[in-house]
Amino acid sequence: MNKNRMNAEKSIPEMQQIARKLRRDIVTMVARAGSGHPGGSLSSVEIVSTLYFKIMHHHPQDPQWEDRDRFILSKGHAAPVLYATLAECGYFPVEELMTLRKLGSRLQGHTDRTIPGVEMSAGSLGQGLSFGIGCALAARLNKKSYRVYVLMGDGESEEGQVWEAAMAAFHFKVDNLVAIVDRNGLQIDGWTKDVMNLEPFSDKWRASGWHVIEADGHDISQLIEAFNHAETVKHQPTVIIAHTVKGKGISFMENNADFHGKAPNPAQLETALKELA
Ligand SMILES: Cc1ncc(C[n+]2csc(CCOP(=O)(O)OP(=O)(O)O)c2C)c(N)n1
Hints:
Strand order of the largest sheet: 1-2-3-7-6
Bound molecules: thiamine diphosphate
């Protein structure tokens, strides 16, 4: 199989530059739209960009390439981070990002499969892991070697379906799938520990039969190591608990649940872009 890793030769400083650019795109497109989800998009920037630029095998010019690794954004409200990354890879023009949430635009507020590079229409939380297991089992049945990556939120992990899927992945020994939890500690209504405590979180995954890796979700080297390590784990699924900061990179958005689903106003956008310059 011809496995092409896009820009795999990029250095860590170059990856950090890409992450800054993606953050600028995210806040700008959400501000232009006047609505959207910046907080959980900003916390996932390194996770998503490391996958697309360093780990996954995919062809932006051929989004349906059947041997591509699959990325499933289960927390579909974080669409801006996926759109910005796909555009940066070349799936569609970067200028199109500014049509986010506009009438007639392909780039709806939550991910839609009609967008080149988007694998799953999402937005109703809790479904992506089940979908990903289906893709992973299909690879096994079809004797394909592609891998499946599912990104979930920690608030999303309060959904019962996530744990049904966790059981199924262990039962079927799904080792070509990696779940990543963006563990930013916040959800729509505040801290997860106050809304529905998830701890002992990693023990729950372990008890469900998963191999657990913890990493700093903003440290690209740690993420690369975690994804490479995951590839060596056989006969059981792997979860990477990525510790992140919601709103990462913009002082007034960091750890602020207010910016879960709110656009910055023009003055706030100016400040944000200065911080990300
Ligand atoms: C089934 C379902 N219930 C509720 C919502 C509304 N909702 C959208 S985002 C969100 C919070 C999600 O928190 P988390 O998964 O931690 O996302 P992140 O902080 O990473 O953005 C909620 C409750 C939804 N989209 N789907």
